[in-house]
Amino acid sequence: MNHDAKSVIKTFVRETLGCQCADEVFSAIQYSHPVGMPFCSAEIARVVIGDRLLLYILETDSPSIIEHDLPLLLAQGKQERDRHGYNRLRLVLVTTVPLAAQMLAETVFNAQTIRDDRVHLHVTGPRAVYDMPWRT
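-> structure tokens emitted (136 positions)
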């Protein structure tokens, strides 16, 4: 991955998601898009930062996709986080209707009993991921 792609991801993680990871964590960044998750009806981007932070990024405005896919992504992501020993899982919902989607996503997320204090939900608009390497 080139320096510009790393810089874009680092800025996104720090400024949009509010992660305070140390600089050395960002020396190793892997991403894949789309990720093959047969249970998911939307494309997912998967980012691993420094073998510590796992991101699943879902772009959708569809309430039915949020209701169906978010619990499945949480289960899959938590399992992957634990299996690989990552510190955190951040589920990121990218939507053009952030207020409505955030209310629904938070309701769905908060209803999941498998979540813990190392799983976080973020809802943001498309501008936040506009420069991501898989979009260029």
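The chain has one domain: 3-135.
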